[in-house]
Amino acid sequence: MQQYNHARTYLEQTLEQEAEEKIANNRRSISEVEQKIELYNQAVVGINNYLQSMHLYNHLLPVIGDSDLMTASLNSEALNFNLEPIDASYSNGRGDAVEVEV
C-alpha cells in the first residue's frame, strides 16, 4: 500500500510539472502570435493608407482584432479531437480474418 501511495504522489508531481511546462509553452506561443499580429496590423495600416490615397476603398485589407482571435480560438477548440487507431479487421465470409489498415 505504501508503494501505491508513493507511486501516486510521484505521478501527481509529474503531471503537475508537465502541465506547468505546457502552460509556459502556451504563454510563449501566445506572446509570439500577438507580436506577429501587431506587425501584420502595422503593415496593413500602411497599405490601407496608400490604397486610400489612391481612392481604392474597395480593396482595403482587414486588421486582426480581438473578436477575430476569439473566433479563431473557438474554432480551434471545436476542431480539437484525437485520432486513435481502430481495429478495422473483418471477416471475408470464408472464416479468414482480414486486416484492414486505416
In terms of topology, how is this protein built?
Elements: H1 2-53, H2 66-78, E1 90-91, E2 97-98
Antiparallel strand pairs: 1-2
Question: Main traits of this protein?
Answer:
102 residues, mainly alpha, two-stranded antiparallel sheet, 2 strands, disordered C terminus
Question: Mind explaining what this structure looks like?
Answer:
The protein is mostly helical and 102 residues long. The chain has one domain. The chain has 2 helices and 2 strands. The protein has a two-stranded antiparallel sheet. The longest helix has 52 residues. It starts with a helix and ends with a strand. The C terminus is likely disordered.
Shape descriptor reads: rod-shaped
Amount of helix: 55-70%
Count structural domains: 1
Mean pLDDT: 79
Number of helices: 2
How would you summarize this macromolecular structure in one to three sentences?
64% of the residues lie in helices and 4% in strands.
